[in-house]
Specification:
Blueprint lengths: L14 H39 L2 H34 L24
């Protein structure tokens, strides 16, 4: 039984422990530091928070972060478009180039026919 009294049946074995471990690491690596950052920012007050955001070092860090993110997204879009174009124009998936495999028989008795 699940937490809400509903029976949960996973398709693959081991999904529940893996999901639990993933969410535990997500909490430890991402959510706990993010909560600490929010607590620290709340302790500064509005004007202290704005003063921190408007410091030249903070603005430079934002420029680097957003600049690299936009550059990476643009580069990813160009490379992805080229790769999609190559894969779509390649004759690998043309029906004539498929490997012919014998169709499996439904019953062993059909082999004698």
């Amino acid at each position: 039984m699940g937490a809400l009294g509903v029976s949960v049946r996973w398709t693959l074995p081991g999904v529940a422990p893996t999901l639990g471990l993933t969410l535990t690491y997500l909490g430890a690596i991402v959510l706990i530091p993010l909560a600490g950052l929010a607590v620290k920012a709340a302790g500064l007050g509005r004007f202290g928070f704005l003063a921190t955001l408007l410091q030249p070092r903070t603005i430079a860090a934002f420029r680097v972060s957003f600049g690299l993110s936009i550059t990476a997204a643009a580069l990813n879009a160009v490379i992805g478009l080229l790769l999609a174009w190559v894969l779509a124009s390649a004759p690998l998936w043309h029906p004539k180039n498929r490997i012919r495999t014998p169709k499996p028989k439904a019953h062993p008795e059909e082999e004698n026919r």
